[in-house]
Every structure is written in structure tokens, then in C-alpha cells.
Amino acid sequence: MRRQVKKVLREKADDSMKPGWDVYQPSNDVVYAFNHYMQGSQIDAEAREKAEKAFQEAVKKHPFHNNADHAVDFHGTTVFRNAKGKVCGVLIPKALPSFATSMAADVLECAVARTSLRSALFGGVSPNSGIAGYFDYRGTPVELKCRKTSFTYEHTKEWRSVFPMIDYTSAIYKAALPDHWKAQDAAVPDVVRIHGSPFSTLTVNERFRTASHTDNGDFDNGYGVLAVLKGEYSGLSLALDDYGVCFNMQPTDVLLFDTHLFHSNTELEAKEANATWNRLSCVFYYRAALGEQPCVEEYRRRLKKAKEEKSTSLSFNHIEQKDNGENTNKPAPVYPVPLTPFSCAASAWALRGCAAAMLTRLHGLVRENASLMTELFGEPVEVADGLPRRAPEEIIPVHKHTNVQMHYLGGFSEKGDILNEAMNKRHYLDKENLQKMFGEEFVNIWTQSRTHWLQLVKKEWEHQKETNPTRTRFSWNNTSAMNFAFFDLCDVAKQLMCGAFGDREVNKKEEQSFWGMFAAHLDNACINEIGMLQGSMGMHKLNVKLKDYNFGGTRYLKDMPPEEQERRRRRRLEIEQARRRAPICNSESGDWLRNEAFDYQTEDVAVNYEREQWITPENNAKRFGFPERGVYGAEGAATGTISVLIVLPKPTNHRQKTCELPTSREADRIMKNPAAQRLLCAKPCNIGLSTSSNKSRTVLCGNIRIDKVFDGGSVGGKMYDFVIMRHLLAATTGEREPLECLVRWTSLARYCTFVVEVDLLDRHHYILKSEIGEEYSAVSEICFSALYSATYARDKVNLRTTPCLLSFIDKSGNMLESRFKFNGSPLNTVAFVVRRREK
User: Fold this and answer.
1) Where is the site Involved in J base recognition, conferring specificity towards J-DNA?
2) Most buried among 248, 691, 693, 738, by the most CB within 10 A?
3) What is the pLDDT of residues 702-726, one digit of tens each?
4) Half-sphere exposure of 519 (CA within 13 A, CB side)
5) Which tens digit of pLDDT belongs to each residue from 476-496?
């Protein structure tokens, strides 16, 4: 099933998930078993038009962004700043020891665990997301606020295995951004900090892609931290959408970033729709509401109660109201940075200092002088009339318009295919299947409530048959004990549904799917267990009563005597408690829902790094070379001459012979745009150099000395600040030649090399509709080869894809810092910023 999106339109974030993820949660993660018919022809045209308009407005406000929407992919240790010099993000690859992430993953996977039953009931792959640590629970129906999450409460012993990862992450945060770490550390209440860190809460996500959002509820004067704990995948980079940059992350990588900037995940880079992949990530943050007065008063109330009960295990004697700062939950202001290959390289931490100052100077020069950019790289940063952007209809949508949320009237749709699907899945509510997900106590409540209702239905049916032996339809008495037993059974079923979805807010389409299966299960039980005739109860009757339950149940409750109202409330609480005590990942059972104990920090224990022979968090953070002041300071101005070497492919004696180009829509897209036509008509850009000389030619541009040389030529033993290898690898063959080429020219760069190449992959390769992708693949190599041959006068051309080029860079002993994509380039040009690997 193709990727879909769960659309959640609400004013407030669902606090069972990371606050601020309030508009979309993508599928690959959320798939509805009934999505293909829930919004079918039963919706009239006017309603569909209104729903479509609302859907499109929501998509505009909170879209998904793909990799092609961003100009830069950061891979190495990176400090990215906005135009005012404020740090927006710090990427640190391989930041965490693998043993720490492995230990934490073993525990935190349980926080997002879903059983196979959930997928069986609703189809697809479960959206796995959960919270750990402490949470305020405001805006949720949970009565007791400002406390441990249920996961932490139920996994006290296992929780300790997360502490090394917490310590390493906190130490990295402190080393990189010490001022913000101190502010956050000073604000977080001691009762809710996780293991002495400035974090109160973790959000754990598995197989999760987010749309553009800001994190509502995070501490304004701090940074959030994202770490990938485990996984096998490509793509899903964290993108800062207003800045056009992505941070590529793999297991053990850490990203410190301003969570109040709009950010999202790019697409999964897997061409097969059913590709196997997994990714477990963790967000560390301080939930600012935990430091506000209502929560502080709750801590004090619990402490006072514990003292009155003469508790002997108190971890605190008093609660301090700290300065929590001003937390507006507003998006951060955006100060865009014009992006060039030089500004991209200047963000590399390895190039800080003198190199970054030079790169910043070069960035300013090419911004002021577009012809200098063309002189250096062969084309401008952006070509307005070049390779056209993909139209939306050419791309596989993340979402389906059929998922538009409609007004919900309770119950379920009675279309034929929906009823058939419900009947096919009714057995998932059988006792033996429920036991796979829920504890014995809750399954017993379900069984007892179900049996009680069926007994009352049987008794009523037998009475109706005695009165009228020819009766074929059951008559439902709304004032009978059977009706109240049905509502009680619905209360149990509702908790079953909440458990299956992990206590997150349930989409109305999912809810309809569930109630359809519930009704089919009961209708089948009426036939096979108490001997009613086919259709005597019927799906329609049960649907009517389910709508009555969803919209009329509270009215009946208010009409009941006070003592009956109280009994019903207690009953619902009893059901919820039983469901929450279901064993997940062998957790210890606990009465989390009613827990009022002052149990803050009771789970905390010290980690003995020396005894375990683990690197200390402080020493681990020192590996990255952050100065005492952190990464805040911007680089100074460059002085003196900057030397740049441009290496060009040597032209052959003649242009590639004109060949017959394919004719298709994709071929026309590549060959007939105005920029491509200019390349075909212009003189090759490397003809100006003398082909008879193997020596370099020097051009002076202010304090920039530019040498140009053909591949194979000599520079007389000189070293250069920067080397630009302009489309050299496309002129090499086999595996050995490109590696030798890379080794030779990158060795002449003091700081870094720009490897500029044609990328045969379409920028939307992984999300192109199959028919478009196939047509593109059939013509791309011959078309781009013709354009390259016209540009560089080459007979033989060997164009490659980004994955292939990255492999060459790695095998040649170089490290990739970033990739820059030239927007609209007729050659689909990319520039890789690489440097020699330190020995």
C-alpha cells in the first residue's frame, strides 16, 4: 500500500505525542485498512468540494517537504547559522557511543511498541511514537498532571539503561551550546529532570516521518536534541524548511537544533514501495509547562501529602519555583542565508577558522558577481529557465485526498465493501487474539461484559419469539437492562481501541473502521452463540445503537441518579486501569492512572563509567573539538590572497558526433528547456585553454587567484586553498580511473575540494510515479550525455548517480561534508564538498 497521511486538524497538539506535531502524521506509518472506501461515492459533490478545499488549505499550511525542495544536504559535523549569525543547527555524526544507543534502544522500543494485532485490525504498519520521562499532561483527559509518564512509571528498572545515552547527549549539548545548556539546566525543575540533565522528556519515534511543524511546548531559550538510536534506511533527513537545508542522519548521530523553526523529514529513499526499513529516533527536550506554576503547585501538593503520610523515601524536602523564562510557543523568526557551494562548505566544523573565513569571502564575491560563479563552477547557483521543476501530478503523493476528514456521525459507513471488510476482520476481537495484546484482567472484563450483553439479548429474543413465533427482527428496547449492558460493552471496546492505538488521538476514519469490526463481531456472536437468525440483529441496528452511544450516551448518563452516575464513572475508570495494566515489553504492572505518590526521581541511580570501562560523557564530548565558548562565534574576515584551482576535463579533437536523440516527454523536458538549448549552441567552456600545454593558466580576480588546468596537466607542485573538480569524473571510465582522479586532485587542496558532477538521478527519484520514472530512466543518460558533450567537447561520457559518486568519494580516502544542488541546472549539477580523511 502506498504511503498515506493521517490528517489531524485540531487547535491543540495531541499531548500523547511530541507537542507541536499537530497537523500531519505520515503514513508509511499510519495506514487505514478501510481508507479505500471510507470517503467514497456516498459523499455528495458539495460536501466533497468543501472537504477538498479544507484539505488543500491544510496542506498549504503544513506540507511535507522532499529532498528536492532543499539546496543543501549536510553530512559531516556542521554548524549552520542564519543571516544574523544565530546557530540554527549543529550536526554531529557518530556522536554517541554505539553501546549507549543500543542499551537505550532496547528499552525505548517498548515505549513505542505496538503489537501485531493493531496492524491486523487496521492494516499497514503501526505509527510508533511514545513519550518517556516526565510530562505535564495538560489538555489531556488524564486527571493527575505533571508527573512521570506511564512508560517510565512501569519500567523503573529498565529505565536506568537509558541514563548513559542521556549523559552523553547532555555533555555534547553543553560542549556545543554552553549558554543555552546553562539556561535550560537552570530552568528545569529538579524533580522532573532526567538523570541530572537539562531534559525533562523524551519523545521516541519509530518509522516516523513528520510534515512541516514547530515543536509547541519546548523551552524557548534552549535547543532540542535529536538522536538516531538504530535503523537501516536512507533519506528521512531533518530539514529546516525555511532555510533550504537538510541534515542527513544515521544511527548514533546527534542534531542540536532550534525546534521553534519549521522543520520536517524528507522522503524515505527507497524505490520499492514495500522496501524493508526501520529507524528509531529520540528527541530530548525540556517541556516548559513542567516549570510553570500549576505544575509546581502539583509537586508541592504531592510532597505535602507524602509528608503527612510520613513517607520515609522522599527525594526532596521542598520545591523551588525557578525562573522559567518566557515561553511563547511562537515560531522563531527566520533570517534566510543565500546558499552557494561556498556558504555550504563554510558550515563544516572541520573548516572553521581561516578556511571558513575564506569561504565566506568567496561566498560574498559570487553573490556580488554572478559571472565569477560561472567562471568557477561553469553555471550560476540557480537557472530560472533550466530543467523544469516536477509538477505535483508527477510525484507520488504522501497523502491521498480520500483521507479528507468528514463530519463524523458516529458508527460506521454501511457500504457493501465496508461491511464485507468488517466481517472478514471480526475474528480479531476474539478472546485468543485480544490476549496477545492485553492483560488477563482486561480480557476478562471484555469477556464478562460481552457474555452479559449476549445473555440479555438471548433472554429478550426468546421472550419476543414466544410472543410472536414468526418474528425475524430483534426489537431493541432503549430502556432495558440489555441496552445499558450494550453501552457498558461499548465502554470496554472503546478502551480496547485506545490500547490498540497506543492512547493517541484516534482518527475518525480509524474509529469507524473499529466500530464496524466491533458490530460485525457482535452480529456474528448473536447468530453463532445464541442462535439468532441471520439478520435478526443486523449490522444496521447495531450501527444505529453505536451512533446513539457516541452521541447519546452522555445524555443518558446525565439523566441517571447521582449514585448511578458515580457508579458508571468508577466503572469506566476500572476498565481503563485494567487496560493500562496490560503487559507491554514485560513491564511491571502499576496503578499509574491513580498514582499520587511523590515518586519523582525515585528511579535515578548513578552510572559508574570507570567500573564499566566506558568513556566518560565529558571525554566523549571533547572528541569533537568544541572550544570552551562553544560554537557560537562567527568567523573573522579573510585577509590575503585566496588560491583556487579549477580542473577541467580535456576536450577531445571534436565534439561528440550528433546522434539521434529519443523523442518523449521526458527527453523534451531535458533537452528543450532554454538553458539546455544555450548549451547546445554555445562553444564548449573548456576550449579556451590550450590543449597543447599541460600547464595551468592563472586568472586574477581581486585577491582571488584562480588557476585553470586540464585533467592530466601539471600545476608545478603548488598547493591551493580550494580545488574545484569540474565534471572530471564523467570523463573517466571504470572503477580505477575516477578513484585515481579524486586522489590526485583532492591532495592539492589545503582545505577542501568541490567535486562538481552531473547527477543522473532525478531530484525526485524516490517519489516519482512509476511511469514517469521509467520514461526518465530510459532517456536521461543519452540526453545528459549529449548536453555534457556539448559543454566539454568530449567523445566518451560516463555519467553517474549520486550514490555511485558518494561511493567513489569514500573509497578515495575523502570525507563528505555536504552536497549542494544547483537549482534548475540543465545538467542537473551537484557539488560535493569533500576533504581528505585525517590519518
Assistant:
1) 548
2) 738
3) 789 999 999 999 998 999 999 999 9
4) 29
5) 988 888 988 998 899 899 888
Q: How many CB atoms lie within 10 A of CB 463?
A: 10
Residue 162 to residues 152, 168, 195, 676: CA-CA distances in angstroms? 11, 10, 9, 55
pLDDT tens column, 134-164: 999 887 656 789 999 988 998 888 999 999 9
Q: Quote the CA–CA distance of 5 and 104 in Å, as a whole number.
A: 29
- d(CA 24, CA 29) in angstroms, rounded, equals 11
Question: 540 a known binding residue?
Answer: no
> What is the C-alpha separation between 825 and 600, in angstroms, rounded?
57
Would you mind telling me the total number of residues written for the chain in this entry? 839
Buried b (16+ CB within 10 A) or exposed e, 739-771: bebbeebbebbebbbbbbbbbbbbbbbbbbeee
pLDDT of residue 514: 87
What's residue 42's pLDDT?
A: 39
The reply to whether 669 sits in an annotated binding site is no
- Is 727 within any annotated ligand binding site? no
pLDDT in tens, 158-187: 999 999 999 999 999 999 999 999 999 999
Cell numbers that stand for 175 in this block: 560542549
Of 380, 379, 377, which Cα lies nearest the Cα of 755?
377
The DSSP output letter for 577 is: H
pLDDT at 395 over 50: yes
pTM of the full predicted structure? 0.75
Looking at the DSSP bridge assignments, the partners of residue 285 are 201
Q: Is 136 helix (H, G, I), strand (E, B) or coil?
A: coil
Greatest Cα pair distance in the chain:
111
Distances (CA, A) of 822 to 398, 742, 746, 828: 25, 21, 22, 7
First to last CA, the chain: 47
Rounded Cα–Cα distance for residues 557 and 550 (Å): 12
Determine contact, residues 822/382, Cβ cutoff 8 Å: yes
User: Which comes out higher in pLDDT, residue 616 or 585?
Assistant: 616
Q: Write the DSSP assignment of 520-546 as a string of letters.
A: HHHHHHHHHTT-PPTTTS-HHHHHHHH
**Grid-cell match 513517607, residue found:** 311
